[in-house]
Amino acid sequence: MSKFERPEWAKKFYSSNAWKECRKAYASSVGGLCERCMESGIYSPGEVVHHKTPLTAFNINDPTVTLNWDNLMLVCNNCHQQIHSGRRWKVDEFGRVVNEYPSHCSL
Ligand SMILES: [Zn+2]
Ligand SMILES: [Zn+2]
Fold this sequence. Notes:
By secondary structure, the protein is of the alpha+beta class.
């Protein structure tokens, strides 16, 4: 099992209609562009809706955290990885680039 596998409580949230509606509405409210790239004047399509306060098993049922637009950020995959890891890629022992995808955020 990969350590980036989503826990059950997170899967349930990310597959909920409430979240799907929320992230769609949020993404269109910011014009569908990566907010982090935009700060540097770059226009990249937003790919991931990131939670600034990470979701946990304790706040997953709290819509003021999970569905609060103030807690959301639309970013591209590169920015998202940088937010979480401070680096763009992880390279495994064979030198291959592996996608180190964070477990808590979702398209
Ligand atoms: Zn970006
Ligand atoms: Zn994230």
